[in-house]
Amino acid sequence: MPAYEYVGNLHVHTPYSDGQGTHHEIAEAALLAGLDFVVFTDHNLLVCGIDGYYGDDERGYILLLAGEEVHDTQRLPQCNHVLVYGAGREMAAEAADLPGLLRAVSDAGGLTFIAHPDDHAVHWLGEPAIPWLDRSVQGFTGLEVWNYMSRFKDYLQNQMDAVRHVFRPEEIVVGPNPRTLVLWDQLLAIGRRVVAIGGADAHGTRYTFGPLSHVVFPYDFLFNCVNTHVFTKTPLTGEAAIDRDLIFQALQQGRAFIGYDIPGDTRGFRFSAQGQNAQAIMGEQIRLGHGVTLQALAPARSRIRVLCRGEVVAEEANVVNLTHVVREPGAYRVEAWREYKGRERAWILSNPIYVTPNSTRITP
Residue 132: which residues within 8 A CB-CB, separation 6 or more? Predict the structure, then answer.
């Protein structure tokens, strides 16, 4: 069951909307961070002509891809931002009807992820909340479970905290919004197949705090924080069109995990299942049969736990390997937590392996 791991950032803005860095500058930052791909997601705009590889033989290459962050600009206050990948055309014209937008993207062969579902306002800074409000909709591919910048807003609720935290974000960031994790587990528990991704929501914006001026945060810093790792079934080819499809197919199927690289490099994490004459990795399903053994392998010692329906079903600290024999069907996912600067932090969040009873199949 070969799987090839690639790391990228799925939420990045440029001056075509409200970002500060050019495509060239962002590509350079991504190369410096060692990413394999970056998806540009400017607001209500698909920038054509940028898909392709950037770099050279000495520094390596990165795949640049065009996506879109779509929202209804006429709806106030703002809400229901959707990250769109692989649709092949601009989807902003569909923004006023969220269910219609999701259908249109699906019909075009694209993917939809609800962005920063539990975003909060920072009133003193004039930063509004941009949450997901219309939660009855279905048909989206997944959730942006960990949006780095949205989560960081939760630590900026007063000016004194903000001045301290923006210069030392690695000391304050612990993990994704707990409400978003609960939401994801609730959707999985009722049988929904919901793929989790993480992203920077990078803008490269410069803020002024009295006499201090600071970019919050540079692209190269954010590309070393929260990224999404995907597993393709064949290696990337160097042909942009082929590799774009391989990456988006892996995302669609949930063959992916979220990694927070500040506490340590997350490359090499694996989550798999072995059953009677069957095996699976995250995003895939496996029949319960006479039992299924789950195995999580971390790149370094950490506290690893397996969850199903929001409940911890197996946990062990200071290990690189955790196994668990499944007795009941369900969506099983893994978290790895690691200590950094005196605090335990979310390090790795896997997508689920879906253990099904008999021949039952989970439908999107």
Answer: 79, 80, 81, 114, 115, 116, 117, 118
Closest CA to 259 of 10, 63, 73, 69: 10
Domains and CATH numbers, the chain: 4-262 (3.20.20.140), 264-364 (2.60.40.10)
Structure token pair of residue 327: 């007795």
Q: Fill in the amino acid letter for 147.
A: N
Q: Which of the two residues, 155 and 313, has the higher pLDDT score?
A: 313
Cα–Cα distance for residue pair 199/196, rounded to 1 Å: 10
DSSP 152-194: HHTT-SSHHHHHHHHH-HHHH--SS-HHHHHHHHHHHHTT---
Picking from 112, 334, 325, 312, the residue whose alpha carbon sits closest to that of residue 229 is 334
Cβ 180 vs Cβ 117: under 8 Å? yes
Q: How many CB atoms lie within 10 A of CB 150?
A: 26
Residue of 264, 204, 190, 254 whose CA lies nearest to 228: 254
Cis-peptide into 77, omega within 30 deg: yes
pLDDT for 209-228, tens place per residue? 567 666 678 999 999 999 99
The C-alpha atoms of residue 84 and residue 21 are separated, in whole angstroms, by: 21
